[in-house]
Design brief:
This protein is an all-alpha fold. It has eight helices and no strands. The chain has a domain at 118-266. The longest helix is centred in the N-terminal third of the chain and has 45 residues, at 58-102. The N and C termini lie far apart (52 Å).
């Protein structure tokens, strides 16, 4: 997906640059009129100030970029390890699970079997469901942006797909970025239409897709989802926000399965 986004942006960069320059001029003229009445050249002045800031803090920005490059290396190392382990999990995951259970005391094996079955059922259902929701959102956004003739449709669609993996906040953030692109390239009317798209897709996702696709596998309160996303973002950034909800869902499913079994034994 990163290669696809990079290739698309590079192919449309010259056209996008021309549209953005024209869009900044339109925004400047729009801000000087009613109801804002800002001084002429406000956008140009902001652009020059950003350039001065970059020139003044070049060394700090460079060190930050190098630190980010180190994190990229760590990310790709973790990705390679994940792919390596996934191959063996898919090939012989059931035998690995059976071997792990045989190492436990015999009296605890049924408990671990119930916990593992509940965890896998919830995790698999969440993964399938969230990918379906993300793909549906991305398709709807792609159709809407193509109809509105917003540039960089494909990268924005990919961004929407990835952002939807973060519940509650991911999709609105991605559509807000699309609205900024639409504001610069197509004007305030199209940008307002894209903002309206945030509301529409939020309603479809919250009242149709999530209850229909995820309702049977993930049964946690929206407040718990919000707190999980916030806690995951604080502890692990974007990746933490992505994995927070499935981790909490799996933990709650395991607790629920063990509680039901204890109640039936009583």
């Amino acid at each position: 997906m990163l290669v696809l986004v990079g290739t698309t942006v590079a192919g449309e960069w010259s056209r996008l640059s021309d549209e953005l320059h024209g869009g900044l001029g339109r925004i400047d003229r729009w801000l000087t009129g009613a109801p804002f009445h800002l001084p002429p050249g406000s956008v140009t002045d902001l652009k020059s100030r950003i350039g001065e800031f970059v020139a003044t803090h070049r060394s700090a920005l460079l060190s930050t970029a190098l630190s980010g490059a180190g994190r990229v290396v760590e990310l790709f190392t973790a990705l390679a390890l994940a792919v390596f382990c996934s191959v063996f999990f898919l090939h012989s995951g059931d035998r690995m699970w059976s071997w792990a259970q045989r190492q436990l005391p015999s009296r605890t094996r049924p408990v671990w079997q119930r916990a593992g079955r509940a965890a896998w059922h919830t995790f698999a259902g969440y993964t399938r469901g969230v990918l379906i929701v993300a793909a549906t959102n991305a398709i709807l956004v792609g159709i809407a942006l193509a109809v509105l003739r917003v540039p960089l449709v494909l990268p924005l669609v990919v961004l929407e797909f990835v952002a939807t993996l973060i519940p509650l906040i991911g999709s609105p953030i991605a559509l807000a970025i699309a609205a900024l692109v639409a504001l610069a390239a197509r004007g305030p009317v199209v940008a307002l239409l894209v903002l309206g798209l945030i509301v529409v897709i939020g309603q479809i996702e919250g009242h149709l897709l999530h209850p229909l696709v995820l309702g049977w596998s993930v049964r946690i309160h929206p407040v718990a989802v919000a707190l999980s996303v916030a806690g995951g973002a604080v502890l692990g950034g974007v990746l933490g926000a992505m994995v927070a909800v499935p981790v909490v869902s799996v933990a709650w499913a395991v607790i629920g399965a063990l509680r039901r079994e204890d109640a039936s034994e009583e």
